[in-house]
Amino acid sequence: MAVYVEHLGTGERVAIDADTEYETFSVIKVPIMATVLEQVRQGTLKLDQRVPMRADQRRIPSGVLYALDPGLQPTVRDLLTLMTIISDNQATDALADLVGRENVTKHMAALGLAHTRIRFSDLDWDRQWLSFLDPSWKDAGGDKSVTFPFEKYPAAQVSEAFRRVIEETGLYFGRSTAREIGQLFAKMARGELVSKEASALMIDILKKQQVNDRLPRYLGDGIEIAHKTGDGQPWVANDAGIIWVKGQPIVIVVLAGHHRGSANELRTAEGRIAAVVAKHYGGDVDPAGLQ
Question: 86: pLDDT confidence band, cut at 50, 70 and 90?
Answer without folding.
Answer: very high
